[in-house]
Design brief:
This protein is of the alpha/beta class. The chain is built from five helices and six strands, in the order ββαββααβαβα. It has one domain: STAS domain (Transcription Regulator spoIIAA).
Length: 132
């Protein structure tokens, strides 16, 4: 998996935007997916985002990934909530906690999970209506 090029897919499932990154996670792939998600959220009035990083490989610390993605706060309305799915061997618990704290301080409701089912339930419980 480490030699796979960066890739991602974006779908709408159960009223959430689901972004799944595969291969080597890069800043370019994160930025490209962020722009597409912003357009889709505005077009379809969707407020839940499930960001699945678990199939990807990364040498980027989670906080760097978060910093790249946190630009969504300036693109997406504050009603957007983001659930991130990751493998425990990908990122340290300290990085995850730090990114969650920073997100709250920036007005972005984001939580990270190690399983998709829990992340999806959290989105259902926290999703808010989009303005428009």
């Amino acid at each position: 998996m480490a030699d796979e090029p960066a890739g991602y897919s974006i779908n709408v499932e159960s009223g959430n935007i689901v972004v799944q990154h595969t291969g080597r996670l890069t800043a370019q792939a994160i930025e490209a997916s962020r722009r597409e998600v912003a357009e889709l959220a505005a077009e379809r009035h969707l407020s839940g985002i499930l960001l699945d990083l678990s199939p990807a490989t990364s040498s980027l610390p989670f906080i760097d990934i978060f910093e790249l993605g946190s630009g969504q706060g300036s693109v997406l309305p504050p009603s957007v909530v983001v659930a991130v799915v990751y493998r425990p061997d990908q990122f340290s618990a300290e990085d995850i906690d730090f990114a969650e704290d920073i997100s709250l301080n920036r007005g972005i409701q984001m939580r990270a999970f190690t399983d998709s089912e829990t992340a999806q339930q959290w989105l259902l419980d926290h999703r808010r209506p989009m303005p428009g």
